[in-house]
Design brief:
InterPro entries: BAT_GAF/HTH-assoc, GAF, GAF-like_dom_sf, HAMP_dom, HTH_bacterioopsin, PAC, PAS, PAS-assoc_C
CATH superfamily of the largest domain: PAS domain
Organism: Halorientalis regularis
Distance between the termini: 53 Å
Helix content: 40-55%
CATH class of the largest domain: Alpha Beta
Number of helices: 45
Radius of gyration: 56 Å
Largest sheet: 8 strands, antiparallel
Strand content: 25-35%
Catalytic activity: ATP + protein L-histidine = ADP + protein N-phospho-L-histidine
Shape: flat
Oligomer: single chain
Number of domains: 8
CATH topology of the largest domain: Beta-Lactamase
Protein name: histidine kinase
GO biological process, one term: signal transduction
Length: about 1300
C-alpha cells in the first residue's frame, strides 16, 4: 500500500465565498506549471524500439499534453469562474490521463464539496431545508459512476455511499450504515490500510483536507488501486460531516508501470536513440548515446547534434534535408557518416531519422544510430585478405551465376573480373565438369551444409588437383541465396603425399625386418605406427592395436611408470624404462624400452622407440644380485667400516662398506672415488704412528691394531679403532690391505668427561658466591679442555656489562687483560652468544669480533652461554677445537649453570621477602591515599563557593600524618608567578620564604604545574639541593617530598594544588595519577559552584563577544546559506551529541537544509516551523560555542550569526576571570574578541530558584525529553512536532516518550499544586 504525503488543511470561511476563486485559480495555476514542466517529459518517456539489421526503425508513441495545454487551461479557468458565480454544474475534462486530467478531477471534486457544503448550511433544526443551488450538482457528482463517493459523520461513522462504491463490496447500504468507515468491507483483510484510513479520517475530522492511496481487493477478489480524498464539511467553524471520494486508478498504475518498462527498454538498447527538436538539438537521449559521447543524458540534452549538422551539410546547397524532414516533405533520412565526434573519438556511424507526429502535430525527429566502425574495419581487413590471397574465391547465386570473384579467380580463368561476373560454370568448364560442379552446388543449397572436394582438372594439357571448400551464402534473414567457394591448387602437395606413401612402405619393410618391437606414439600416447614384431609379441592384431593406448600393454601397477616415461620424453627428449610387456593372453615378458622425441611431417610432436626382450639378461642379473646380496648382508652386519685399500701413505680405498657413514660421515662413493683422501683426514699427530705400525705388521705378515684420530665430514675429531691385515697373491706380493674401522670417540670422551664432571659437581656444591663458582670451573676447564685460553664472563647487572670474572693466564696475556663487554654491543660475539642463548663456534678466523676477541692470532674458539648468567669462552691459537672439546665445554657449562641457578634461587628467595615487604608498604600507602581522596570528595559535595572548596581541600589533605602542608594558588595575570589563595597545615612560613615563579634555577613545583598544566612529582627534596631555589626553605619546614597538580576543567584553569610530605618518596606514579584526578575533581566542583552562583545571582557579568571567521555550526549555516541565524536553545542528551535549536531568517529553508546535509558532523536535522523564519532542530557532534558557554557556567542571552561573523552575549557570575574565560574560548576559536563587559541586573532570581526547585524532582532523561518537546513545538497549537517525530528525534519509541512526558508533567504538577502533607510524603 502506498500513502501520499497529506496536504496541509486549508482554512475555510463559510461566511462568504471569497475563498472559492483564489483556491480554484491556484489549482489551475499549479496544473499549468506541472504541464509546462513535465508535459514534454511525459511525451519523451514513451518510446519503444523495434530491432533489426542495419538501421533500426523507431516507433515513438506519446501524449502531446504540452501541445494543447493552453486551450485546456483556458477551459478550466472558465469553469472556475462558474464556480465563483455559484454554479456547481461544471464541465471539465476528467477523462484525460495526463496532469490536466488530474487537475480537472480535483476541480470536479471541489465542485462536489462546495455543493455538499451549501446543502448542509441551508438546513436548520426543525425545518425542511430548501433545495440548495448545488444540490442537483452534488447528487450528480455523488452518483458519478466513475467515482466511489461516501458520506461520514465526523467520528468516522459511515452514513451512505454511491452505487459505484457499493459495487466493490458484497453488502447493501443498510449493512454498512452506522459502522466505522475503517471497519467496513471496503477495508476488510487489509490491516495496514484500515489503520491508514482511520488515521486519515481522524485528521479530516479536525478540519484538515486529506488525500490517500491504497491497494485493495474488490468483492470478486480482484486487486485494484484506489486514489481519493476526505474533505471536511464545516458549519460555523465545526466539522459536521466528511465527504469521502475515490477513483479506481488501477489502469493508470498499470500504464505507469508499462511506461517504466518502455523507458528501461530504450535505455537498455545497444544502439543510440534520441529525439531532436526542429533546430537539431537533443531533447531526449538514451544511455547508449550518452556513453558514446562519454557523458550523461542530462548533460547532452539541449546541446546541438553533430549528426544533424552533417545531415544539413549533405544537401545540394539549396535544400536542407533536415528541414524537409521537419516540415514533412521527407519520410526519412538514412545514411552513413564518418567523422571525429566531440568528446568522443573517430567513428563510422550508420543512422536513420524519422518524423514524430503527435495528434497531427510535429513532435520531434526520432533518430537511431549505430556505431559500425569496427564492422567497417573488419570488412576492410576481410576485403584485403580476399583480394591478396593466391587462392580463387568466388560467390554464385542460386542459379549458378558468378556474382563476385577475386583477382585470383579472374587470373585462374584468364578473364577480367567484370567479364567473369554473370557467367556460369558451363561458360567456364567442359560439360562433364560443369555438371559435377552444379550437382555439388545443388547439395549445398538443399542441405545448407558445407563440403570439401578434391577435384582433378586439366589445365594446358596437364592434370591439376584442386581442393575446394564450398559454403552456403545466407542473407540477413538466414536464407540461402547462393554459394561461397574457395579453391586451392594442391597438385604439388598431392604428389608429395604419394611420394611419402611410397617411402613409408619402404621404411615399413625395414622396420618389419627388426626383431625388436618398433612403435610410434602421438602426443597423447596413442599408437600411430608399429612393426610386425608388436603383434607377434603381444598377440593383438593390427586392428586392435590401432585403437589402443601405449599404457594398454602394461599392468595397472606399471601404467604410472609408463606415463611418467612418456612425460619424460616430452620434457627431455629421451627416456629409458624396463617393464614387463603384458600380452593378450596375460603373459608378462620383460622388455627394455628406449624412446626418443621426434616430429611428424606436419610439425606435431611425437614419440618413436624400440622395445627389446631382456628376459635372459634379467635372469643373469638376478643371479649376480643374489651373490652380491649375500656378501653385502655379511659386510653390513659387521660393526664399523669394512674396507679394502692400497698400502700407500694416503691409503686410497678400493671399497668401503655402508658403515663408513657412521664412522666418518661420508658416503662410500666419496671415499671410493678418491674425492676424500684418507691420509689428509687423519690428525697429523697420529699419521707417523699409523704408517709405522701398518708397515711393521705387513712385513711380519701379521694383523695390526690402531687407535687414532680423524676429522669427520662435519670437521669434528673422532677417535677410531682399526684392525686389519695384508692380502698377498700367490707370489707372496702384497695386493691390498683389508680390515675394519670402528668409531670409539664416545668411549674416549666419556672416560675423560665422567671423571672431570664428577669432581666438578662435587666441588660446586660447596660454593657460596659467583666468583667461587667461576674460579672452580676455571680450574676444571684447564684440566679437561684442550686449549689454554679459557675465560668466564658473568653478567654484572649494576654496570650492565659482561665482566671477565675468571680466566687463565694465557687468556689474559692475549689481550693485556681480558676485555669487558657492554650489554647491547652487537659487534661482540660474547654479547651475541649471551643474548641469543646459542653456541658460537669460530674456525680459521671466519668470524669477527668488535671487542678484539679474535685478533692477535686467535682464529678458533667456542663460546657457550651459561644460561642467564654469562658466557664460557675457549680460544685457540693453534687449531680448531674438536668435537670432544666442545662437548666437554658444553657439559662443564651445564654444570656451571646449575650451580649459578642455585645461587640465584637462593638470592631470589631473599629478594622475594624484601619485595613482599615493599608491596605491603605500597598497599598501606594506597589505602591511605584512598581514604584521603574519599575525605576530600566528601568535602566537595556540600561546598557552594570556590573559596569554600579550596579551603576544604587543603584542610582535609593535612589531616593525614604524612602530609605536612597543602596550598592552592593561581597564576597572576602576567602568568609569571603563583599567588596562594588557600592553605592549611604547618608551613605558612614556607610561602613567605619562596618565590613561586620561574626565576629560580629549579622552579617551585606549583609554578611548574601551573605553567605546564601537568602534574609535577618531587620524590626527594634533598636531590639537587646545591642549586638555589625552593628546596632549602622546604627542608627548613621539614618537607621531604612534594606533588603539584593543575586544577583544570575543559581547558579552563583554576590554579594549582601543591602538597608536601614529611617523608621522602611519599609521592610516586600512583600518587601522581590519584592527585591528577583530584585536581580535575576540584576544578569540576569549582565550575559547578560558579554555575550555581550564576543561576541564583541577580547581579551578573555580561560579556559581548565577536567571533570573526567563526567555524561554529551556526556561523557556517549563516555563511553558506547567506542568512541571519539566531540561537533558540540547547538540549544535551546522554550521549556525545548536542541538540541545538535555531531560527534562520531571510533564507530558503531548503538552502539551509542543503547546508546541513553537507555537514558530516550533523547526524539529524528537522524543520520545525517556517512561520516567522525557519525554526530548525539539529543533532550534531560538532563542538558548539553555546555548549561551551553553558558547560563553563555561562547563560547565553543571544547568539546571532550572519555572513560576516557571529555575535554572542553571555551572562557569567561576577567572580569569573574574564581573561581566563576568553582565553579558554580562544583555544577553539582564535578569532574571538571581547567587545564589551558590563555589570547587569537580572530579575531572574525568584524565577530561577523556582525552576531549579521544579527541575530537582526530574531525572536527566525526563528533563531532556521535556526540554526537547518544548523547543520542538510539541506543546504548540497546532503541534509543530508529533509524538512520533519527537520519538525519532530522541532515538526511542513513542510509548517511551509518552511515559517520560507524563511522569515529568506529573512531578512538575506535584511541585506546583501538592499540599504540605503531600510534600511530606
Amino acid at each position: 500500500m502506498r500513502v501520499r504525503v497529506p496536504r496541509r488543511s486549508v482554512g475555510r470561511d463559510r461566511s462568504g465565498r471569497g475563498w472559492h476563486w483564489p483556491l480554484a485559480v491556484t489549482l489551475v495555476a499549479v496544473g499549468s506549471v506541472l504541464l509546462a514542466g513535465t508535459g514534454g517529459a511525459l511525451l519523451r518517456a514513451l518510446a519503444g524500439i523495434a530491432g533489426g539489421d542495419g538501421v533500426v526503425p523507431v516507433l515513438v508513441v506519446g501524449l502531446a499534453v504540452d501541445r494543447d495545454a493552453g486551450g485546456v487551461i483556458d477551459r478550466l479557468i472558465e469553469q472556475v469562474r462558474r464556480l465563483e458565480d455559484g454554479d456547481y454544474d461544471i464541465d471539465v475534462p476528467t477523462d484525460r490521463d495526463d496532469r490536466v486530467g488530474q487537475l480537472a478531477t480535483e476541480l470536479d471534486e471541489l465542485a462536489a464539496t462546495l455543493a455538499a457544503a451549501d446543502d448542509t448550511n441551508g438546513s436548520t433544526e426543525g425545518e425542511t431545508p430548501a433545495p440548495p443551488r448545488g444540490e442537483s450538482r452534488f447528487e450528480a457528482v455523488f452518483e458519478d459512476p466513475r467515482m466511489l463517493v461516501g458520506l461520514l459523520d465526523p467520528d468516522g461513522t459511515h452514513r451512505r455511499s454511491n452505487e459505484t462504491a457499493m459495487s466493490y463490496i458484497d453488502a447493501d447500504q443498510e449493512a454498512v450504515a452506522g459502522v466505522p468507515f475503517w471497519e467496513t468491507p471496503w477495508w476488510a483483510g487489509h490491516e495496514d490500510a484500515q489503520a491508514m484510513i482511520r488515521e486519515k479520517v481522524e485528521r479530516a475530522a479536525t478540519g484538515e483536507y486529506v488525500s490517500y492511496e491504497a491497494d485493495l481487493t474488490d468483492a470478486a477478489g480482484e486487486r485494484f488501486s484506489r486514489e481519493g480524498t476526505i474533505r471536511p464539511v464545516t458549519e460555523d467553524g465545526a466539522v459536521v460531516s466528511l465527504v469521502v471520494s475515490a477513483r479506481d486508478v488501477t489502469e493508470r498504475k498499470e500504464r505507469e508501470r508499462e511506461l517504466e518498462r518502455y523507458r528501461g527498454l530504450v535505455n537498455a538498447m545497444r544502439d543510440s536513440a534520441s529525439i531532436y527538436d526542429a533546430d537539431g538539438r537533443f531533447e531526449v537521449v538514451n544511455q547508449a548515446l550518452a556513453n558514446f559521447y562519454r557523458t550523461t543524458p542530462e548533460d547532452l540534452e539541449g546541446t546541438q547534434s553533430h549528426l544533424v549538422e552533417h545531415v544539413r551539410e549533405s544537401g545540394d546547397g539549396e535544400t536542407d534535408p533536415y528541414r524537409e524532414l521537419v516540415d514533412g516533405h521527407r519520410d526519412e533520412i538514412r545514411g552513413e557518416y564518418e567523422s571525429t565526434y566531440p568528446e568522443a573519438s573517430h567513428a563510422v556511424v550508420e543512422y536513420r531519422m524519422t518524423r514524430l507526429t503527435v495528434d497531427g502535430e510535429f513532435g520531434g525527429i526520432v533518430g537511431v544510430a549505430r556505431d559500425v566502425t569496427q564492422r567497417r574495419e573488419q570488412e576492410r581487413r576481410l576485403r584485403a585478405i580476399v583480394e591478396n590471397t593466391s587462392n580463387p574465391i568466388y560467390i554464385k547465386d542460386r542459379e549458378g551465376n558468378y556474382q563476385f570473384a577475386n583477382e585470383a579467380s579472374a587470373a585462374f580463368f584468364g578473364l577480367d573480373r567484370d567479364e567473369l561476373v554473370g557467367k556460369t560454370d558451363r561458360d567456364l568448364f567442359d560439360e562433364e565438369s560443369a555438371a559435377s560442379i552444379r550437382e555439388d552446388d545443388r547439395e549445398i543449397l538443399e542441405t545448407g551444409e558445407s563440403i570439401v572436394i578434391d577435384r582433378t582438372r586439366r589445365i594446358d594439357g596437364e592434370k591439376a588437383v584442386f581442393l575446394e571448400n564450398k559454403y552456403p551464402f545466407r542473407d540477413e534473414n538466414g536464407e540461402i541465396v547462393g554459394i561461397i567457394g574457395i579453391s586451392r591448387d594442391v597438385t604439388e602437395r598431392t604428389e608429395k603425399e604419394r611420394e611419402l606413401e611410397r617411402y613409408r612402405e619402404f621404411t615399413d619393410d625395414i622396420l618389419d625386418a627388426i626383431d625388436d618391437v618398433f612403435y610410434a606414439l602421438d602426443r597423447d600416447g596413442n599408437l600411430t605406427r608399429w612393426n610386425e614384431s608388436l603383434p607377434a609379441v603381444t598377440g593383438y592384431d593390427d586392428a586392435a592395436i590401432a585403437s589402443m593406448h601405449a599404457t594398454d600393454f602394461f599392468t595397472e601397477a606399471d601404467r604410472p611408470d609408463i606415463e611418467a616415461a612418456i612425460d619424460e620424453v616430452r620434457e627431455t627428449g629421451r627416456a629409458r624404462e624396463e617393464v614387463d610387456f603384458l600380452t593378450k593372453d596375460g603373459e608378462s615378458i620383460p622388455h627394455e624400452f628406449v624412446a626418443t622425441r621426434v616430429q611428424t611431417p606436419d610439425g606435431d610432436p611425437a614419440i618413436a622407440g624400440i622395445g627389446r626382450n631382456v628376459t635372459e639378461r634379467k635372469e643373469r642379473e638376478e643371479q649376480l644380485r643374489e651373490r652380491e646380496r649375500v656378501l653385502s648382508t655379511l659386510i653390513d652386519n659387521i660393526p664399523g667400516m669394512v674396507y679394502r685399500c692400497a698400502n700407500e701413505p694416503d691409503w686410497p680405498f678400493e671399497f668401503v662398506s655402508e658403515g663408513c657413514r657412521d664412522v666418518t660421515g661420508y658416503d662410500p662413493e666419496t671415499i671410493e672415488d678418491g674425492d676424500l683422501i684418507w691420509g689428509e683426514e687423519v690428525v697429523d699427530d697420529d699419521t707417523d704412528e699409523i704408517w709405522t705400525t701398518v708397515q711393521d705388521a705387513v712385513e711380519n705378515r701379521e694383523p695390526f691394531q690402531l687407535t687414532y684420530r680423524i676429522e669427520d665430514a662435519d670437521g669434528e675429531r673422532r677417535w677410531l679403532w682399526e684392525q686389519g691385515r695384508g692380502v698377498f697373491d700367490d707370489d707372496g706380493d702384497l695386493r691390498v690391505l683389508e680390515g675394519v674401522i670402528m668409531d670409539v670417540t664416545d668411549r674416549k670422551e666419556r672416560e675423560l668427561a665422567l671423571q672431570s664432571l664428577h669432581d666438578a659437581a662435587r666441588d660446586l656444591i660447596g660454593t657460596e658466591t659467583e666468583n667461587d663458582v667461576a674460579d672452580l670451573v676455571l680450574d676444571v676447564a684447564t684440566e679437561v679442555v684442550d686449549t689454554p685460553g679459557v675465560g668466564i664472563y658473568l653478567l654484572d647487572s649494576e654496570t650492565n656489562t659482561l665482566e671477565p670474572t675468571a680466566f687463565t693466564d694465557t687468556f689474559a696475556d692475549l689481550y693485556d687483560g681480558p676485555p669487558a663487554v657492554t650489554v647491547g654491543d652487537a659487534d661482540s660475539l660474547v654479547w651475541n652468544t649471551f643474548v641469543t642463548e646459542t653456541r658460537t663456534i669460530v674456525e680459521d678466523g671466519e668470524a669477527t669480533d668488535g671487542t678484539g676477541l679474535f685478533d692477535d692470532g686467535v682464529r678458533n674458539g667456542v663460546l657457550v652461554p651459561i644460561g642467564d648468567h654469562g658466557v664460557f669462552v675457549a680460544l685457540s691459537c693453534d687449531g680448531r677445537l674438536d668435537a670432544t672439546t666442545r662437548q666437554l665445554v658444553e657439559t662443564l657449562v651445564a654444570t656451571t649453570e646449575a650451580a649459578l641457578d642455585r645461587l640465584e634461587s637462593e638470592a631470589a628467595l631473599r629478594e622475594r621477602d624484601a619485595e613482599l615487604k615493599a608491596q605491603n608498604e605500597r598497599l598501606r600507602r594506597q589505602v591511605k591515599i584512598t581514604e584521603i581522596i574519599r575525605s576530600v570528595d566528601q568535602s566537595l559535595i556540600g561546598a557552594n563557593a570556590r573559596e569554600e572548596i579550596e579551603r576544604a581541600v587543603c584542610e582535609r589533605l593535612v589531616t593525614d600524618d604524612t602530609i605536612s602542608f597543602a596550598w592552592i594558588g593561581a597564576l597572576d595575570p602576567d602568568e609569571e608567578s603563583v599567588t596562594a589563595r588557600q592553605w592549611a597545615g604547618e608551613g605558612e612560613s614556607y610561602l613567605d620564604a619562596i618565590a613561586a615563579d620561574g626565576t629560580a634555577a629549579t622552579p617551585e613545583p606549583a609554578w611548574q604545574a601551573a605553567r605546564t598544566d601537568s602534574p609535577v612529582i618531587v620524590e626527594n627534596v634533598v636531590d639537587d639541593l646545591q642549586r638555589k631555589g625552593w628546596r632549602k626553605p622546604a627542608l627548613a619546614n621539614d618537607f621531604h617530598s612534594a606533588v603539584a597538580v593543575p586544577l583544570v576543567f575543559d581547558e579552563y584553569s583554576y590554579g594549582v594544588l601543591a602538597v608536601y610530605a614529611t617523608e621522602p618518596g611519599a609521592f610516586g606514579d600512583l600518587e601522581r595519577s590519584v592527585f591528577a584526578e583530584l585536581g580535575e575533581s576540584v576544578a569540576n566542583s569549582i565550575t559547578a559552584a560558579k554555575t550555581r552562583q550564576a543561576l541564583h545571582a541577580e547581579t551578573l557579568l555580561e560579556l559581548e563577544l565577536r567571533f570573526e571567521d567563526a567555524d561554529d555550526l551556526l556561523a557556517r549555516i549563516a555563511r553558506e546559506a547567506d542568512s541571519r541565524v539566531e540561537y533558540e536553545g540547547l538540549a544535551t542528551g546522554s550521549d556525545d551529541d548536542d541538540r541545538i535549536f535555531f531560527v534562520a531568517h531571510d533564507a530558503d529553508p531548503d538552502a539551509v537544509r542543503d547546508v546541513l546535509d553537507g555537514l558530516v558532523s550533523v547526524s539529524d536535522s528537522r524543520l520545525i516551523s517556517d512561520a516567522d523564519g525557519a525554526l530548525f532542530e539539529v543533532t550534531t557532534t560538532a563542538p558548539l560555542v553555546a555548549a561551551k558557554l553553558v558547560s563553563h557556567g555561562g547563560r547565553p542571552q543571544s547568539i546571532t550569526a550572519d555572513h560576516t561573523g557571529m555575535d554572542v552575549v553571555v551572562d557569567l557570575s561576577t567572580g569569573t576571570d574574564v581573561r581566563e574565560f576568553v582565553e579558554m574560548l580562544q583555544e577553539d576559536h582564535p578569532s574571538v574578541e571581547l567587545v564589551a563587559r558590563r555589570q547587569v541586573e537580572r530579575s531572574t532570581h525568584t524565577r530561577r530558584e523556582l525552576v531549579t526547585t521544579l527541575f530537582e524532582t526530574l531525572t536527566d532523561r525526563q528533563r531532556e525529553v521535556l526540554e526537547t518537546a518544548y523547543l520542538a513545538g510539541f506543546f504548540e497549537q497546532p503541534r509543530e512536532t508529533t509524538g512520533e517525530e519527537l520519538a525519532a528525534m530522541l532515538g526511542v519509541s513513542q510509548p517511551t516518550v509518552n511515559r517520560h512526558l507524563r511522569l515529568a508533567q506529573q512531578r512538575l504538577m506535584e511541585q506546583l499544586f501538592a499540599t504540605d502533607s503531600e510534600d511530606s510524603r
